[in-house]
Specification:
Number of helices: 17
Order of helices and strands: HEHHHHEEEHHHHHHHHHHHH
Strand content: under 5%
Distance between the termini: 44 Å
Helix content: 55-70%
Structural class: mainly alpha
Number of domains: 1
Strand order of the largest sheet: 1-2
Oligomer: single chain
Number of strands: 4
Length: 464
Amino acid sequence: MTVRDEDLGFLLAKGPRRRRDGTTMVCVYSVVTLIVPARLVISGVSMSITPATVVGLFLGLVWFCSQLVTTLNAAKGRNVARTALFVFIVTQLATYGYATRNYLPEDELNSADRTLVTILGVTLAALAVVDGVRGVARVELVAKCVLVATTAVAMIGILQFLLNLDLTQYMVIPGLHPVTSDGFVLERAAFRRPAGTTGHPIEFGVVCAVALPIAAHFAFTAQDKGESARRWWICLGIVATGAMVSLSRSAILGLALASLVLLIGWPGKRRIRAFFVGLAFLVLMRFMVPGLVGTLYGLFAEIGTDTSISGRTDDYATSSVYIAQHPLLGRGLGTYLPNKYGPLDNQYLGTLVQNGFIGLFALIAIFVLGAYAALRARTMTRDPHIRDLGLTLVASISVLALGAATFDLLAFSMATGLAFLLCGLAGALLRSTRAEQVAAGIDPPTVRVVLTRAMRLKMGSLQK
């Protein structure tokens, strides 16, 4: 049985029928990652494993099998995002082996096992994205799935904020059970802080901020093509509202950085339009939710006296001891338990403690090389649509890279899955753009490739 793109609803552009492929599985993975509440894990398993991790591991198995044959239309060969993901996996395995070569307390060993499985799930899924999503249209399809799923998450969070209605309590899925009995609706300055389906309001705000550049891309490009953009403007408004009602500094800083990246790369007319759209949104939020804008301003105006900020900086003295003890590979993946040693509200610092300098450089490479892949795809073509998509991915990845400095990103499943998914999507865009350039004769193979092919032909003739 074939599955048409149209069967996925308005997410898909109209076009010819297509069978299930790697993109279809990646879309399922993105929806499972974002929609299934973070507190739900698989029943009957000794460690807390989310459904998204299982789907990610399955994608990794499919990716591995596709690399062994030539009949599944999976891409092969080097790719800068692919290389970054490989290096990251190797560093995680090295850290795990280094930590478990000697005795570990049972709680730390269990945490290390669960963390390794989770990391393998998101990394292998990202590799499947790089090699399994073929074509710019399919890259956009995954981006649309991410946007629509995030819009649903934001809508659930907005209902939590406005009505104190937590729909996640009614999302009962057979085979899953909650690891906590309560929801994730906190309070700040007399406002409720929603979390949607995520694990914390900070993660909720960052996830919404990541989706904002994607929504802006589809809204503006639809207008430029003369198509209806109403649905994308609605998505843009919902995710922007979700980021604001999260009452999170990380989300607001992420929005600011994403806006800066987009404004630098956008043409002048779009900058003007975006400025007025943003101004109108702020005015609307000021009247619709009195006190919200002022509260957000106070988060930064009173940053010097905020106890949450001082608590984050207090972690530095404690963590420096562990860094000095294990500088290269860290003390062990997932072995620094917050309830045992205290929280580390900075993913780069946490990675330095648990994975050492080698692991830290590998994590930074995920963000840097992912953004580079998207920028490289942007510079390889003059197609304004592809160029804007590359810029969009850079902006979204930048939000996560900044968020990793303001909270422990890898401790939250949805933000982690989204970070690796976007890195893989950037690699897929670069591979697809390169393939289109070669097919059109605009960007022929490099001299090295031509010489390699000539040598193979010569060796084949000599063997005959």
